Each structure stands twice: as C-alpha cells, then as structure tokens.
Amino acid sequence: MIQFSKNFLWGVAASAYQIEGAWNADGKGPSIWDTFVRQPDRVLNSHTGDVACDHYHHMEADVALMAELGLPWYSFTISWPRVQPRGRGALNPKGLDFYDRLVDTLLAHGIRPKATLYHWDLPQALQDEGGWPERSLTDRFAEYARVVFDKLADRIHLWATFNEPWVAAFLGYGHGIHAPGICNAQAAYQAAHHMLLAHAKAVQIFREGDYDGEIGLILNLNHVQPASNRPEDLAATERVYAETHSIFLDPLIHGCYPEAFYNWLGPHAPRRAAGDLTQIHGTVDYLGINYYNTDTVAYDISGGWLKARLTPYVAPGWGFTTMGWGINPYGLRARLRDLQTRYNNPKLYITENGCALPDQPDENGFVADYERIAFLRAHLCQMHAAIEEGANVQGYFVWSIFDNLEWERGYSQRFGLVRVNFDTLARIPKQSAYWYRQVIQHNRLEC
Ligand code: GBH
Asked: Which residue's CA is the nearest one to ligand 1's atom 2?
C-alpha cells in the first residue's frame, strides 16, 4: 500500500486543438494546425480538429462529468488564435470569454484549473511572419501572456507557458511531422531557443504583475538508455539527452548553455543574443514532466543530425501501446531520479502520463480497460518510489480525460479515461476513470 501526502495534487489533462473543435467559430483565427491538417498526407486519414470532441460546445457537460469523476484538478491549454486571432493586436472577446466561462464552471464544480498558454497551435498569421525561428515572436507571446493573465490569473494559480517545446520545435520545424511541417535543423534549434526566451518574458510579466500562483514550463522527458557501454553509444545517448533535456534545463536551472553539444552541432546551433541567458535563468517555479516511454539509443552514422538510432525499450512483462511506444514504468522513476541529481531536485508535477490502447467497447460503448489501469498503477508506484527516494513530485495528471485528436495520427489513438464516440460525440467513462476516482478519493493504492 502506498500513501500520498495530503497536499498531493491529482488531475487530468487535455489540450485545446485536440478537443475543442469549433475551429473557426466566434471569431477564432486559423492556427498552423488548421492549415497543416488541410494539406495532403500530413495527417493520417486526413483527419482534422475541426470538430474533435466539440468540447467548445459541450464545455458545461464536460466539466460536470469531470466533477462526477471526482477530479480535483483540470489542466487545459489556451488556444492563442482563439484569444488573439492574428497573434498580435486586437483581441477576440468571445474567445477569451470561453476560457473565462470554463474557469468559472470548473470552480463552481470545485475543480481547480491549471492552464498552459501554448500547446502548439500558433496563429497562422505569425507563421506567415516566419514562425518560431523568428525572434520577434518572443514579444508577441509575451503580449498574449499578459492579456491572458489579466483576464484569468485572479482565478488560475497554476500556470505553464509552453507544453513540450522540444516537440513544437523539432517535430514542427526540424522533422516536418507536426505543423508547420518544416525540415530544417537550424530552424528547430532556433525555435527552441526562442520558445525558452518567450517563456522567460512571460514569466517576467507574471512575476512583475501582482498575480498569485506558480508558473513553470512542461518538458517531454522520455527516458533514454544507451544500447551498450561502447563510447559511441554513450555519446549518442548523451546527444539525445542534450537535445531533449540539456538545451532547456541547463539555461533554466544552471544558467548556462550546453556548449559542448552546441559546438558539436556547429552550424545547426541556435543564434543567441547577449543577455538571453540571464533572462532565462531561474524562470521556473516548477517543472512539468510528461513521461510516456523509454528508448534505447545506439550510435548510427545515418541517424539524422544526432547520429543516433532510437529503438523502443519494453520492460520485462510489458508490451507496446498502439503508438508503438515501449512501456517501461521504471523509466519514470529513473527520469525523476536523474532530475534530482543533475538539476538540483526541482519541484515537479507529472503533467502528462497515460497510454493509447486498442480499447474495445461493449454494446453500450463501455470499455473495460484493465490494461490502462495496470499502466497507470505501475507508473504511480514508480513515481511514489522516486518520491520516497527524495524526488520533489507534488502532483500527477493523467493524459487524457477524453479520447481526442492525436495530432498527425488523427483519431486512430485512444488515450482517454473517457471514451468519445466521434460519430455521436457521446462520452462514456471507461473502467480506468472509476479506478482513478478511487485512487484520488483514498489518496493511496496497492502496488
Ligand atoms: C504529448 O506528447 C502531448 O503533449 C500530447 O498532446 C499528446 O497527445 C500526448 O503526448 C500523447 O502523444 O521523434 O517522431 O519519434 C508526446 C511526446 C515525445 C511523443 C517525443 C513523440 C517522439 C517523436 N512525444 N516522441 S519522434
């Protein structure tokens, strides 16, 4: 039996583009994802987020369902082009009003809101100006952050600036898998640096304003382990670690850049202005960690710019999710331990953890997803073990509350605690939702 502390925070997470739909309703501007999904062969089966779960029009019922499921916290993300259709200047009052009502509805049901300012849906107008490789976007982001804080920070006290800047920069600008679909290593590193700087500018506004609460950044920190102890495998693993961890955490926490790695990258390294580092250093009250899987890394001369080949690692007795990711609950503990030793034991929330599985609904649409329960239980047990070992983890959010649009994989992946029928939009809690309610209620579980 493991017991969590009284103040441990439990919740679920979702993101705007993946659930809201209403892609052009009430004055919302287009985002880079609205553009991307309309281009041929970008998204599996040409699925789009035009409707998704239509959460925009089901918000009140959705929040009532969350309350029924006993959820104390809901982590959502704000669509920038819904609030500021062209990414600068004029606001869209109806867009802002949606989030205002969402927050009030959550609070009325006793659910506390956690909000993220950026989960990949950049206003298309800003991509037309060059997107994240363009330094001026850092000021656009800061302006947008100020507008949102002014409207909502009286009621939201837990904030994140960016969700997974690695994904936004490297899948968006480096590998062309995500919007805006660009393949350019230098652009990716430049985008990542600008997201850090934009984060820092938003945090400065938050700290100088009289807002009450915590603000941080969310990173996708999958676990990586070397294929062998050969020096070239160790070096390749270190480069993958540098790209996913060090380029963000070194400036944020240690106030330095990973210079050795940037030297190795040569012309791909980002351009940095004097003063950026000082501005970025020390700008997280907490770190959000999204953990899903573990990869084994081997040196490979044709392995892209990192010269690394990643193979999914599956822990003994476990298997793969439908994403093709190897399940390794122990990887979460290893990641948390690593942050403790390499990054001064920062305050952490697990801001996403979950799995996509081949859910089979019965004739009533009910899914008895015992595999998902096993996945979540095992990860909670490993997280708890890391806490016992001294990791400063203060909360945990399941990805995701609903089945939703899994980006370039469309609706082929089901991550939800609640099943969504994408024809009727009916929501049906899965077995895992009831299990999670019990964990939260008792604040403990059997390992
Ligand atoms: C999270 O990202 C997202 O925040 C969320 O929106 C999403 O729905 C959820 O997870 C489930 O996927 O280099 O192409 O092999 C997941 C983080 C980290 C997934 C990197 C893919 C390897 C991509 N990801 N990972 S690739």
From this structure: 220
Q: Kindly report the protein residue whose alpha carbon is nearest to atom 13 of ligand 1.
A: 171
Report in angstroms the alpha-carbon separations of 173 from 112, 139, 146: 34, 20, 26
Residue 307, Cβ neighbours under 10 Å: how many?
Answer: 16
Note the pLDDT of residue 303: 97
With vertex at residue 401, the alpha carbon angle to CA 316 and CA 325, rounded to the nearest 5 degrees, is 30
Asked about 352 being catalytic, the answer comes back as yes
The answer to whether 73 and 11 have CB atoms below 8 angstroms apart is yes
Among the options 164, 238, 243, 406, which is catalytic? 164
Instruction: Please identify, by atom number, the ligand 1 atom nearest to the C-alpha of residue 15.
Output: 6
**Token representation of residue 127:** 């991509």
Look at residue 210 in the predicted model and tell me its pLDDT. 85
Nearest to 254 by CA among 245, 243, 264, 267: 245
Query: Which member of 20, 238, 243, 352 is catalytic?
Result: 352
Ordered structural domains, the chain, with CATH? 2-445 (3.20.20.80)
The predicted model scores a pTM of 0.98
d(CA 303, CA 259) in angstroms, rounded, equals: 22
Q: Which residues contact 167 (CB under 8 A, 6 or more apart)?
A: 120, 178, 220
For residue 136, say if its preceding peptide bond is cis, omega within 30 degrees of 0.
no
Q: How far is the CA of 275 from the centre of ligand 1 (A)?
A: 31
Dihedral sign from CA coordinates of 242, 248, 253, 258: positive
HSE (side-chain half, CA atoms, 13 Å) at 290: 22
| Residue type, position 127, single letter | Q
Q: How far is CA 147 from the centre of its chain?
A: 22
Q: How many Å from the N-terminal Cα to the C-terminal Cα in the chain?
A: 6
Give yes or no: 164 in active site. yes
From the CA of 167, how far away is ligand 1's center (Å)?
7
In the chain, which stretches have pLDDT less than 70? none
